[in-house]
């Protein structure tokens, strides 16, 4: 299993809208058969900063299967135009 951690920073004035978009978009991520879990949290000190954590069955399940499929497009449509540049994305494995 691999955990994806993505940090999204809302555009000024879009903080609440991004949060709602992320919540709606989680449903598309969760539909992928290789998604084990998907959650989002909001930073307390910086309310425009959101952390998405998704547990995938493998790195390829995320980087190849999900990102090249229709669910990724639907996920991004839910949040497009609400965050600064590309999110910072890293993958972690239990040690």
UniProtKB/TrEMBL annotation:
<feature type="domain" description="ABM">
    <location>
        <begin position="1"/>
        <end position="77"/>
    </location>
</feature>
<dbReference type="InterPro" id="IPR007138">
    <property type="entry name" value="ABM_dom"/>
</dbReference>
<dbReference type="Pfam" id="PF03992">
    <property type="entry name" value="ABM"/>
</dbReference>
<dbReference type="InterPro" id="IPR011008">
    <property type="entry name" value="Dimeric_a/b-barrel"/>
</dbReference>
<protein>
    <recommendedName>
        <fullName>ABM domain-containing protein</fullName>
    </recommendedName>
</protein>
């Amino acid at each position: 299993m691999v955990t994806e951690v993505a940090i999204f920073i809302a555009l000024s004035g879009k903080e609440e809208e991004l949060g709602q978009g992320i919540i709606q978009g989680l449903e598309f991520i969760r539909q992928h058969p290789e998604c084990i879990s998907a959650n989002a949290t909001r930073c307390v000190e910086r309310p425009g900063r959101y952390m998405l954590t998704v547990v995938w069955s493998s790195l390829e399940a995320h980087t190849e299967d999900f990102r090249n499929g229709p669910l990724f497009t639907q996920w991004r449509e839910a949040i497009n135009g609400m965050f600064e540049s590309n999110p910072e994305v890293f993958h972690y494995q239990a040690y």
